[in-house]
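Changelog-adjacent note: as of this version, every example in the card shows the full chain rather than a window. The one below runs 496 residues end to end.
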Amino acid sequence: MAKCKRNLMNNHEQVSCRVIKSCYDFAFSRSISLESIIHDHGSSMEIIGDSYGWTDTVFYNAIIDHIENGMQKTGISFQVGIESIENNSWKDIENVIKAIGDIRPILQQIDRFSSYFFREKLFSFVENKPGSAIITPVDNSPFITNAVNFIAGSITSVPLLWNGEPLSALKLRDGSIKINTSGNRSFFDTPREYKNYSPRLLEEIVAGLEKNKELIEEKNRLLKKKNSELHEAYIQLEKSTDKKIQNEKMAVLGRLATGIAHEINNPLSFVISNFRSIGDYFLAIAGEASANIPENITSDIPKVLAETEEGLHRVKKLVEDINYMAHPGHGKKTYANVKDLIRSSLRICRNLYKNDISVTESYGHKSDVFCIPSRLSQVFLNILLNSIYAVKSKPAAAGGEILIKTSENKKNLTVSFRDNGTGIPEQNISQIFEPFFTTKIPGEGTGLGLSTAQSIIQSHNGEISCASRENEWTEITIRLPLSKDKASKDIDIELF
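Full-length structure tokens:
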């Protein structure tokens, strides 16, 4: 885009909008419309009217070409420079130049004068001689030629600012431009002129400064308004993101609720049954008239107690895993074993896969990772749920497999989840990490699972990628840095 922008220094923003405004005023006086070319380059009258803005050389050359085509004449940039003062195209800096009051110091500081209009160096040599100055361009490229002609034309008309006569100029064979300064009248040449003109000049300078102050104040007001609107929009986005991610978590936990209840019910059932047996045994012992206790009772009590303890531990661990997942997630980063986090996620969704999907785990890592454990658990659970859904959605669901592998090198720990489910169509792979994108039927998913996973992995300075072949397999690969410094990226938006 060829928009004039403030405070952006790069190779493309070399031309001041003062130059573009000069071209526009020149073209307007000759009934040549620049509206289409300004629009095509993504600019506007408001933008080119900002004398502090900058644009690119392509835009400037295009405007010059357009004017020359309209006039059927070449080399018009010199004339544009001459008329730029008459058209008041420079705005604020005219008073600065007027205050100098003499063409000689301007020629001595021609590079500085040129910098008001072009950031690129235009001249390789400037020779000041009594009564003349010779300007030699650095090369003969179209932009440099147009720019130097504009500067030369502008200099010849500068004396008009103090009611002097314009200077004459001559283009030499080598492309240099000779400016004739003999007979040039300085603003300060006569005491009378200085006396009569000085107050008016000062008034114009003060008026220009006041106008600039008003413009700056107005732009500051607009900037504060925009900043306020942006801040409010950011707050709303943050709230919206938190809400959507929390909804995704609730949807996940909701889908797991039935299975979790079943997993809790099984161990509790035999815990209750075992305790009933223990009660019966104690009743039998208490009812014995003698101290002789049947051998089958004494041998069965340790087994019953062991099973009871195992069942209670399963209930306890399952509840711990669920609480860990559902925690708001404001914890600090710490070192954690990826194997423990994966197995925690597997326990939570066990009821969804235990009867018809084989899960194979292959852990080839030794190092812990610096992370927020509950968030990585959320990532692993989201991926596992997607894999389970894909395997069960395949017509031949029998023989479903999920392979979980880890490995590490000096820099990263890699985790991969591969399933033999429905796979992902090639045209959809680039979209699977986008928020709200889902291939599940309505009510089965929100489309935030993998988007959430990507946000969490990126907040840990990691990477997540997907490879798939439709109707055959899908593999999600995660790479996490082992270095604590590289894993310590600040998290701007609270995910949970």
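Structural remarks: The radius of gyration is 39 Å.
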